[in-house]
Amino acid sequence: MSFFSSKKMKVCLENALTTNVPPDVWRETGNRLSFLCQYDKGDLRFTVPPSLPVYNIEKVHKMTLEGWRAKIAVYFIKFLVLIYDLLSLPIYFIIDKPWNRWKLNKIIWATLEDEEDPTSCYVRQVHYKEPQNGVQTMDQLFNRAVEKFGERECYGVREVLGEEEINTGKVLKKMNLGDYKWLTFNEINDRVENISKGLLSLGVRSKKPVILLAETRLEWIVTAQACFRINVPVVTLYTTLGEDGIVHGISETEVTHVITSSEQLPILKKVLPKVPTISHLIYMEGRKEESTEDIPNSVKLVSFSQLEKRGKEFTEVNFTPPMPDDLAILMYTSGSTGVPKGVMITHKNVITAVKGFDDILSNPSFKLHEQDTYIAYLPAAHVLELATECFLTSLGVRVGFSSPQTLTDFSTAVKKGEKGDLKMLKPTLMVAVPLMLDRIRKSILQLAGREGTFTRLMFDFAVSYKKFWSEKGFRTPRLDKDFMGGELRVIMCGSAPLSPDTQTFIRDCLNVQVLQGYGLTETAACATVMDFEDYSVGRVGAPIATCRLRLVNWEEGNYYVTLINPTRGEVVIWRYDCCLHWVISKIQNRLKTLSKSKTARDGSTQEILEKYSRTEL
Q1: What angle do CA 311, 314, 317 make, to 5 degrees?
Q2: 342 vs 605, higher pLDDT
Q3: How many angstroms separate the CA atoms of 317 and 304, rounded?
């Protein structure tokens, strides 16, 4: 490509934009338009945004010149950086000690129990802590945390100072948000006690389930802890299930008490006439009170504040303490493949998953601090979110509540100029799903692009530069530390395969470790997870300490596990106490046992890669 004078470039642009340009010259490419300028010395193609007025020749001319200047400037900076790297490499080689990373890349995280039998189980080889047997139930897990961290901050909620509606063709609610307000472990324990006694005062009994249908919020987890304490199974339903899904969950479990939020009252008004078993409806108050009219007279309506007040005054406490094999959660799936299915999860199931998590977090290279904060924004009705909240709380990590609508500065419910929850809370730990990380990556790239051509080119160079040296074992500064609050250390990702490109981008750009994991509701969230010292991408790590997995033949796909090709097949997960039961139609009036050998079939094909980290095919 040749360089041309500014005058000739302007003439070319003028001709291309004001004359009848042939289709083979003027064409649409993605979200931009490009056109060809022909000279006797060669051809030059320019690209401009389609929103740019075609009659504004001076603006096109200026933009094109700025692009060339930016490219030249970035190339010059790259040259200077190259010289600096060559001169400073010996120093950084001694400081960063990249050979330590090289050693980590050779670690065997899991191996076959029998190397001669490719169908034997894969077992984790790297352990940092032996499973502890002291805690056996969910209430014991929380009570131990209260005893250990009594006056430490436990749960936090962001104050809502105001709310307004903006009509842009679609009515959007924008909130004016304040700081986070915190409750200590002792204060939360008092609320748990009051709520548990309040439920007993309304006729809730041990081993008789109640439904919890609400958004992720403080009252959700406090109610769950109260139910665990008095041995009341929690039936979780997604708020996105819709009318049919909610009716299905209530009818199948035949519950009498539903605990919900005021935001869910409108849909429950439609549901209640179809489920005559409901006798009590307890709702968490919201910023805007919903009408309680049209609630059937047979249903007693109780607000959350009234529930706590009743608990303070109730003295006839009578319940059966939970045992490890008692049902803790009856978790309904999202219904993406049909009607929602209820998975029965015992106290022992969750505690076993917690022990597996504890082994990973006991890595000496990762230490929890008193200031560590977890941001809870995913649906608490999802087993990964619930297990993570309970586990981190048991370690003294404070939990701040958020929502997808208020997570970032650009979230739909955040007023312009206000900080999103990430920047206000400054979390150090979070769980994410691939879709959310893809959106974060897109937002960061858009922010870089808005600052002009030079900034975008420099950002692209910085990302590729950091990726190059990080893979070689050298440390480099983070690129956008404030986007996620500035203190983030670890992101745990699950629920779907994460793009290797997104994983690398988030890891290098934010300077955080992105640990991908894999599990099922039937395995109480976790079956495999990456180690803190596993820097591979596109993989989900080795089996956790309390879990094993093996590959079996998948004949429909022509996958056979053999000594010649032992790494592909259908995965079967084995745990010391796999969640073995599903709730099925009450017409059959029985429970269906998935397996008597403590295994669960994943139903998808997998590949065991070198270092025995599993990845999707």
Answers
A1: 100
A2: 342
A3: 19
